[in-house]
Structures are given as structure tokens and as C-alpha cells.
Amino acid sequence: MTNSPIDAGAGPIGLYERMGERATQPFAIQLLDQLMPLDGLAVIDVASGTGGLAVAAAERDAWVTATDISPDMVARSAERLRSFKNARAGVMDFRSLGTAGASYDIAISHFGILAFPTWRLGLDELLRVTRRQGRVGLTMWTQEDDCSPAHLMRRVFAQLHPDRELWPAGMFPTFSQDELRESLLEAGCSTANIHVAQADWSPYSSPDVVSECDPMFRGFPGYAALSPDEGENLREALQQAFNGYADAQGIIRLPTRAFMIVAASG
């Protein structure tokens, strides 16, 4: 972990915090609302990114541990959590968390473990570190239609390039509510409540939405591999797709949708 401040406005860490949290943080607040009260409870946030949910949990007086496999992400989380005496951050792999079993009242992975093909290992670890009668909270995009800006991009990309993949196979597995519930119960949860939550996403500038999202989309291999002409064609199609969600004033409001999961450990 670095001792110097992390520039939240530069590089991939700044991009993740500025753009990624813009789409995911409304769901973090909804999930924490379902888990309230948090006062004095030990909470671990697994695959925590730059710490948006962890900060919100610390503000609600939980004792928070934010973990991520990326040292840079953890450094940024630690910086944001520095003012909370009840919070810390550390580098951990969600497939094998470096913490004792039954250490936490609540284990959360917000748009984290369910995005990876190894999500079952992550789920097992969440349950291992959760105390008996504790709770597990999870969120993940529904993967249906234009449920996030990235999924709108995927739809447009597939229309123009049906023979190519936007992101690596195995990333962002597709679930149904029944499949998620069955997996949680099989892993050892006694109950699993799941519903689809919604939040509106708007870019900072609707006329410049494609330029605004471009740095984020360049993280997808399929997009990064486009030729200049292909990229220009895709950006034009993206602008049209985003404009389909504009209101009478031209403000884009994309209704994002995610699974919201709260389960009880056995």
C-alpha cells in the first residue's frame, strides 16, 4: 500500500471511481438499506473496488473491512476510509480470503464475485467468514437488455459485430433469480431473498455521453480491437442507442437493473 495520496481523477482507479461508482453506488445504498441497522456490526466488503460501498457502510457505523485483489484499489479505499476509526482495507483474493472463519456479521460483494466464472468459490468464502445467523449481501447486473451502460454497449456491439465478443467469455455469468437462490441455499444459506432493483443512470453530459464512456469502454477487449472506421461506426450507433433514453429535455436517463440479494447464513 502506498503512503502517498491516490489521484482519484487520473488513470484506471480514478476512472473506476468516477464512472463505475456512478452506475453502481445507487445499488450499494439500496443494499445497505436492506441490511440496516449496521451499528457496531462487523462487515466485510469483498471485491470492494475503490470503496464506495465500504465508505457508505462506515458512515452507518459498521466496522468495515474493504478487500480487493488490486493493491491500487485497496490503496484508494484505505485513503477514503482513513477518517473512520471503524474501517480498514486490505489486499485479498476473494477465492481465498485471508481472514479467520466466522469473523463477520455481514459479508458483502457488490458487483464483485458474481462477475467472475469463479463466483462459486467466492460465495463459499463469503459464507465461511460469516458468523452463524449472519447475513450475506450480493448485487449483480441482471444481464438483460440495457441493464447498464456497458450492456447497452454490448447490445450495439453485437448488432454491428455478431461474430465477435465484447468481453472475455465467462465474464459476467448469466443468472436467473431461481438459479441464484438455489446456489445460495446449496452453499449453506438458510434463506435467500432476491429481487430486481432499479436505478436511473445519467451521464455527466448527455450530448457527450459516448466520449464520456469511451475510456471505460476501452477496457473491453472487443472495443479496444476495433479499427478506426469500425470505432467511428460504433460510436455513432451508441449515440443513437443512448439517445433512445433521453427525455424531452434531451437528458439521458438509463433505467439500470440489478439483482439485489440478501441471504442468511446457516
Key attributes of the depicted protein:
single chain; alpha/beta; globular; 2 domains; 266 residues; Rossmann fold
Overview of this protein structure:
- The chain is of the alpha/beta class and 266 residues long.
- The protein folds into two domains: 1-141 and 175-202 and 257-266, Rossmann fold, CATH 3.40.50.150; 144-170 and 203-250.
- The chain is 40% helix and 23% strand.
- It has helices at 11-35, 52-59, 71-81, 119-128, 149-160, 177-187, 209-217, 221-224, 228-243, and strands spanning 42-46, 63-68, 87-91, 104-110, 130-141, 189-201, 254-265.
- Strands 3-2-1-4-5-7-6 form a seven-stranded mixed beta sheet, sandwiched between helices.
- Helix 3 (71-81) links the parallel strand 2 and strand 3.
- It starts with 10 loop residues before the first helix and ends with a strand.
Q: N-to-C terminal Cα separation, in Å?
A: 35 Å
**CATH-defined topology of the largest domain:** Rossmann fold
Mean pLDDT reading: 94
Strand order of the largest sheet: 3-2-1-4-5-7-6
Q: What's the number of domains?
A: 2
Quick summary:
The protein has 266 residues and is of the alpha/beta class.
Describe the SSE topology:
Layout: H1 11-35, E1 42-46, H2 52-59, E2 63-68, H3 71-81, E3 87-91, E4 104-110, H4 119-128, E5 130-141, H5 149-160, H6 177-187, E6 189-201, H7 209-217, H8 221-224, H9 228-243, E7 254-265
Parallel strand pairs: 1-2, 1-4, 2-3, 4-5
Antiparallel strand pairs: 5-7, 6-7
